[in-house]
Write a structure and sequence with these properties.
Helices cover 0% and strands 33% of the residues. By secondary structure, the chain is mainly beta. Among the domains are: 51 residues, no CATH class; 172 residues, no CATH class. The strands form four sheets. The protein has an eight-stranded antiparallel β-sheet with strand order 5-16-7-12-13-14-9-10, with no helix packed on it. A hairpin with a 7-residue loop joins strand 13 and strand 14. It starts with 128 loop residues before the first strand and ends with a strand.
Length: 344
């Protein structure tokens, strides 16, 4: 019967042709072991159903055959990366965030020059500055207090905020602005803080008159009215010596015979007056010295210097006040500033 092949072992070998084998007639029992080779497969005939589980090893996969389409989402983990295989080309722009950095991994070599702005620095305390300690590590210094300056503390330690010194620094204390006043008084802040106080006179104008003198008196528990001994002298621009003084008086003579408000020259008296060691008490007699410039009333008001000094020739308490006044009338305009001169 057509299409039927007997398994009669008596048939001669090789007498069955392909045309005499029925469709699907050759089953597994008719195929010898290891008899099917690659030449017997139709192209792409081996599909997923014909590949045993765990049968495809890395040796069976062609080079570069596994594409992105063949890899499941979220399937690639750190265990699959070759060390050093993730280079710059494989990292997306703006993909590395703070969570990806190992602690302490961003060192100096990774920070470009001029990239640390003020906004990136940690907050500090107002008035502090950043310097370096003996180990070369950064350290914050300060803040100091009002009036202090930053000074070197020498090798091996950071600088520090310290009180200003500097040998004889003039420290401003107060000002009296004159406006038709009987006197210009300083009755506070004269104490043991400074051993020398300076008074800077600026265009102190005396009241109307023909010739008045500028005087100074001291306060030591009360205003002292006796035992002043002073002398002042100077030359005017015409070359004449102008001098005056007294060995027992009620005031110090600072500048005498001055042009006044009603006269032609209105420059006033300017210069410096010094109070020496006011807190010494009875251990020394109290002293003032001065170097002034005014306008002598003689002639046409020659500019005239007035240099001098004076002493209270008796024991007194500490001096705590100074007054400037005219020999007659008021002080009209000008100002006087008081400074303390530091010892060191």
């Amino acid at each position: 019967m057509s299409g039927i092949v007997s398994k009669n072992a008596g048939r001669a070998s090789g007498i069955v042709g392909a045309g005499t084998i029925g469709a699907d007639a050759v089953d597994g029992s008719n195929i010898a072991d290891d008899a099917i080779d690659s030449e017997h497969y139709v192209d792409v005939s081996i599909d997923a159903a014909h590949i045993a589980s765990n049968a495809v090893t890395s040796a069976k996969i062609n080079a570069d055959a596994v594409t992105g389409a063949k890899i499941a989402d979220d399937a690639i983990d750190s265990e699959h990366y070759v060390d050093g295989s993730i280079d710059n080309a494989h990292i997306a722009d703006d993909a590395i965030d703070s969570e990806h950095y190992a602690a302490g991994s961003i060192d100096t070599a990774h920070i470009a020059d001029n990239q640390i702005t003020l906004a990136k620095m940690a907050g500090g305390t107002d008035g502090q500055i950043i310097t370096y300690d003996a180990s070369g590590d950064p350290v914050a210094v300060g803040p100091g207090t009002d009036g202090q300056v930053l000074t070197s503390t020498g090798s091996g330690s950071p600088p520090a905020f310290e009180d200003a010194g500097g040998g004889g620094a003039w420290n401003y204390i107060s000002t009296v602005v004159i406006s038709d006043d009987a006197e210009a008084q300083f009755t506070s802040n004269i104490n043991s803080t400074y051993s020398v106080y300076a008074f800077m006179l600026k265009n102190v104008m005396l009241a109307s008159g023909t010739s008045y003198d500028l005087h100074a008196t001291l306060y030591a528990g009360s205003w002292l009215t006796s035992n002043y001994s002073s002398y002042t002298f100077g030359y005017d621009t015409d070359g004449y010596l102008r001098s005056t003084g007294s060995t027992s008086d009620s005031k110090f003579w600072l500048a005498y015979n001055q042009y006044t408000e009603s006269q032609t020259r209105k420059g006033g008296v300017s210069g410096y007056v010094y109070l020496i060691d006011p807190s010494a008490g009875t251990s020394v007699w109290h002293t003032m010295s001065w170097n002034l410039m005014g306008h002598i009333s003689t002639g046409t008001g020659y500019p005239c210097s007035a240099t001098g000094g004076g002493v209270i020739v008796t024991d007194t308490a500490a001096v705590t006040g100074v007054s400037f006044k005219s020999s007659s009338g008021n002080l009209i305009t000008g100002e006087i500033r008081m400074y303390g001169i530091a010892d060191s």
